Amino acid sequence: MEKRQARQVVEVCVDIATLIGLLLGLACIVLAVVIGGSAMAYVNAPSMLIVIGGATAATLTAYPLSRFLKLPKVTAKALFSKATNPAKLIHQLVELAEVARRDGILALESVTDEIDEPFLVNGLRMAVDGSDPEVIESIMETELENLMERHEAGRGMLEAMGKYAPAFGMIGTLIGLVAMLANMDDPSKIGAGMAAALITTLYGTLLANIVFLPMADKLASRSSEEVLNKTIIIQGVMAIQSGDNPRNVESKLLTFLPPSVRAVEEAKKAA
């Protein structure tokens, strides 16, 4: 068990594309601010409080507390990824099919401790226990559907933050305009008041389009990758359970890969 956990830790790594995207977007904005004038003119604590606090409060209103408290964990999934190569997963399933074909399906029980993917382990154990194929497929597909729902809920919170942040930016702008109009008797304060009012909208737009919405899209991409891998596992376990020839198992599972990747795998096999 400890070895399996160690392997899983090694596989988890920072997603370079996400990190570069966040840093590059921030760098572009900071560079534009520095070139365009005083950086301190774009710093306004009340405006930031309205945007971040308001978006957080609205999201908390829209989602249950138990789900909202998982937001940091959901955000971390966009920054950190557990790399799972579908091609390697297919090779693993083909090897398991060869073991089952050669030594019988009961032989798979001795290799489950070496497998890192719990979803695959559960499917193999049901197959080893002699569960009905329809029951195995139904249980695994139900687990996959629940996984998709959890992913959708997590992504939805980031999308909500991306939706509410610009709205609260506009609210902050209106608050600033009201305060500015209340001091129209002093023309020297009109320019500063207008700048402070507009900065709130800027904060909301930047947070939505640099942080919240891109990270929500990254989570959608992560979800698609995981759904693909688990779909491959379901089809692989069902093929192993039915005693399919390992070559047929490989041919069936390779259809889940893009044609370019499939061609590379077939070339490796031919070589």
In short:
By secondary structure, the chain is mainly alpha-helical. The chain is built from 11 helices and 2 strands, in the order αβααααβαααααα.
Task: Report what the structure shows.
By secondary structure, the protein is mainly alpha-helical. The protein has one domain. Helices cover 79% and strands 2% of the residues. It has a two-stranded antiparallel ribbon. The protein is elongated, with a radius of gyration of 26 Å. It starts with a helix and ends with a helix.
Helical amount: over 70%
Q: Give the distance, in angstroms, between the N- and C-terminal Cα atoms.
A: 36 Å
**Low-confidence runs (pLDDT<50, min 5 residues)?**
1-11
Strand order of the largest sheet: 1-2
Structural class: mainly alpha
* Shape by Cα distribution: elongated
Domain tally: 1
Tell me the number of strands: 2
Q: What kind of sheet is the major sheet?
A: 2 strands, antiparallel
The tally of helices reads 11
H/E topology pattern: HEHHHHEHHHHHH
Gyration radius, in Å: 26 Å
Mean residue pLDDT: 85
Oligomer: single chain
The fraction of residues in strands falls at under 5%
